[in-house]
Amino acid sequence: MANDYDPSGLRLTARQDLYRLTMPFPVDGKIIASGSPIALARSGEIVKPYLDGDVFSTRITLAPSTADPFTGTRWVIQQDKDGTWGFLNQGQPENMLLASAGSVTLGRPLQVAGMARFVTSRWLVYRDLIGFRLRPVMPVSGWLGVRDDQLILADRDDLLGRWIYWDLIPLQNDRAEPRR
To answer: What are phi and psi of 164, to 5 degrees?
Structure first.
């Protein structure tokens, strides 16, 4: 069943309730597709901390809102031909969410012949009954999560929990607040 396809564009994985998103998908009545402006927020929180990219330090942190001065909380999602996704930071569009050696940073991906973006800038997006999970396309990586208010890439054998879930929030435009 690991490679079965659902007509809605979701790829069924080994767990019956976990779907890998390989095509545009609905969120809050809007379709998220390549080029869609979004915000990424930690799921399940009353006051949502948003994923924030600081282009000057190349650090990825959590911010309390998407309003100025947190311009790095606005992202544009891009889909690769292989069904993976990339996240361009709108603090400076040519910088992407990167994962390498167990850490998450912001930077310019290397260009490799035959690949639109290098593996460190490509992400797998999954959805289940609780929400969204993000994992870099790397054989040794785990889920993107937050522990003790710190952004981490989990080890592959870490226990699952609410700490690995994200909300993908459609933005009305690249300067707007998230839709409520």
So the answer is: -105, 5
